[in-house]
Amino acid sequence: MVIVQMISKLKVGKIQVIKVLVNISTATFIHAGLNTIAMILAIVSMVAVFEYHNARNIPNMYSLHSWIGLTAVIFYSLQLLLGFAVFLLPFAAVPLRAALMPIHIYSGLLIFATVIASALMGITEKLIFSLKNPAYSTSPPEAIFVNCLGLLIVIFGALVLWMASRPHWKRPPEELPKVPRRSGGTPEGTEAESTMTDCSNADKSDVGFSSEAARKRNLKLDEAGQRSTM
Amino acid sequence: MVIVQMISKLKVGKIQVIKVLVNISTATFIHAGLNTIAMILAIVSMVAVFEYHNARNIPNMYSLHSWIGLTAVIFYSLQLLLGFAVFLLPFAAVPLRAALMPIHIYSGLLIFATVIASALMGITEKLIFSLKNPAYSTSPPEAIFVNCLGLLIVIFGALVLWMASRPHWKRPPEELPKVPRRSGGTPEGTEAESTMTDCSNADKSDVGFSSEAARKRNLKLDEAGQRSTM
C-alpha cells in the first residue's frame, strides 16, 4: 500500500511545537476522490433541477423534499471541505484530527441516510405528480416498479450502513502503517522530537503531550471509533 | 438499581449444561416497556389509517410511503418479539444473547431511521394532497409550518442517532452488576458450576466454555459494541 507522508505541526499549550509525520494511505485518497466526484455530480443534478423548474415555471424550493435535499447537499459540501482541510492537508494537529474523526464518520453516515430519505421523498412526489392517467392510487405497473426501486434504495442504504458500522470490517490494524517511536532522530524533513504517526492512530501513540485527562479523552475517542471506515 | 436475576440454561457441545444467572436491569425493563407502548400506538395508528382510507374510498397500500411504513412496522414487531424471546425470557443461552445484541442494536437504529424517512414521505404526500387552494407549490404558511416540522423530525432523528451511537454514553461499567466468579458455589437456585453474568457482558466473563476461537469471536462481539444502549 502506497503511503504518502505529510508533515504536520502539532502545538501544545503555548510553548511546545512538535512536527509530526502523518501517513495518508491510498484508501484515504480514494475516499476523498470518490466523494469529490459524487459532489460534482450532486452539483450538476442540482443545476438540472433548477433549470427544469425554471423552464416549466415550477416554483423552486417549496417542498420538504427540496428543503431536506438542499440541506443535505450543503452539509455534504461542508463535510468535504472540512475533510480536505483536516485530514488531507498537512496543517491540522493530530489531536484535532482525532477529535474530529468520530464527528466526520457520524456526519458522513447521517448525510448518507438523509440523502436516501430525500430520494424517497422525491420519488413519492414524482409518482404523485406524473402518474395521472391511470393515477398512482390505482397502482399501475409504473407505480409498482418505482415503489420497488424505492424499497431497493432502502435495502442499499441498510447494507451500506451495516458495513460502515461494523468495527471488524474496518481496515485491520496490520494494514495500517507501522508507527515506530523516534526520539531525536531526524528523518526526511523533520526536526528533533518528531514522531511518525498515523492520524487515525493518534490516540494510541504517545506524542509527548498526553496528560492524564488527555489520555482519558483519547481513550474515549478510541472507543468512539474515530478510525475512518476508509 | 434493581436487578432481576433469571436462570438461563447454557448448552455447550452435546454434554455440558451450565445454569447461568442472567441479570436483567431496570433499564432493560424500561426499554422493553416503552417499546411495547410504542408498538401498541403504532398498531392503533395503522388501524386508524386503514379505516380512514376505507371510509373515504381511498385505496390502501399503493404508495411507497405505505410500503416502507408497513415494512418498518413489521420489522419493528419482529424486533420486539425477538427482543422479548432472547433478552427478557430466561431461555436463551449467553452466547446467543451476545451474538444477537449487535444485530438487535443495528436493527433498532435502522427501523428508527426508516420510520423517520417514512414520516417525511407521509408529510410530503399529505401536503400535496391537502394543500390545493392555495397550492403547496405557492408556499402558503401551512406549507412552511409543516416543512419546518419535517426539518425538526430530521434534527430529532440525528440527535437520537448521535446519542445512541456514542459508546461513552452507554451505561457505564460501574452501573453494570458486578460479575463475581464462582466455581462450585450454589447460590440461590443454581447448580454447581454456575456463574453470575450479565448477558450484555457475556464476552468479558469467562463462563467456563471459552475455547480460543470462542474467545476471539467474543472479542469481536465486544468490538461490535454488543452492549445495548439501554
Can you walk me through this structure?
The structure is a homodimer of 230-residue chains. By secondary structure, chain A is mainly alpha-helical. Chain A has one domain (3-223): Four Helix Bundle (Hemerythrin (Met), subunit A) (Up-down Bundle). Chain A is built from 5 helices and 3 strands, in the order ββααααβα. Chain A has a 3-stranded mixed beta sheet. In chain A, helix 1 runs antiparallel to helix 2 (64-88), helix 2 runs antiparallel to helix 3 (94-130) and helix 3 packs antiparallel against helix 4 (141-165). Chain A starts with a strand and ends in a 7-residue tail after the last helix. Mean pLDDT of chain A is 78; it is low at 177-212 and 214-230. Chains A, B: Its EC number is 7.2.1.3. Chains A, B: It is a multi-pass membrane protein.
Spell out the key features of this protein:
homodimer, 230 residues, mainly alpha, Four Helix Bundle (Hemerythrin (Met), subunit A), 3-stranded mixed sheet, 5 helices, 56% helix, Cyt_b561/ferric_Rdtase_TM (chains A, B)
